Amino acid sequence: xxxxxxxxxxxxxxxxxxxxxxxxxxxxxxxxxxxxxxxxxxxxxxxxxxxxxxxxxxxxxxxxxxxxxxxxxxxxxxxxxxxxxxxxxxxxxxxxxxxxxxxxxxxxxxxxxxxxxxxxxxxxxxxxxxxxxxxxxxxxxxxxxxxxxxxxxxxxxxxxxxxxxx
Length: 166
Ligand SMILES: [Mg+2]
Prior knowledge:
- The chain is an alpha/beta fold.
- The chain has one domain: HAD superfamily/HAD-like (Rossmann fold, 3-Layer(aba) Sandwich).
- The chain has 7 helices and 6 strands.
- The radius of gyration is 14 Å and the shape is globular.
- The model has no long low-confidence stretch (mean pLDDT 94).
- The protein binds magnesium ion (MG).
- Magnesium ion binds at residues 32, 34-36, 115-117.
- Magnesium ion (MG) is lined by residues 32, 34-36, 115-117.
């Protein structure tokens, strides 16, 4: 199976049914930051905050897996969501994902990675046998280093028969 193929695709984090995750024996969740939790305005919506809250209440372990270190973003996440962050994760390389699994004390196939980029979030998760969930980016306006990859991602999703409306 190609590492480019997400195991599931959703319109946004808040649309992911927690029972769906439980059905796939998922106990841990890894979250991307940019365009998954918030866009360039760093605005965390009520829906996202509530989703994270109910995931915690349902017993899921949650970590943020980020390729960068950004003080302001990290503080917003910590103060609003109260979740730990693994920075400089080097997605899609395996190291950050394996570190997260170790920290969560879970097996790789009990963990779902949720993110808006195929070439970092999805590929990295697939490489270590985690459940990969692609979410539609929150905002079309985004950093240049991400924007150029979008047409390719749309082609990949289409190839695998996923509907992509972003
Ligand atoms: Mg992202």
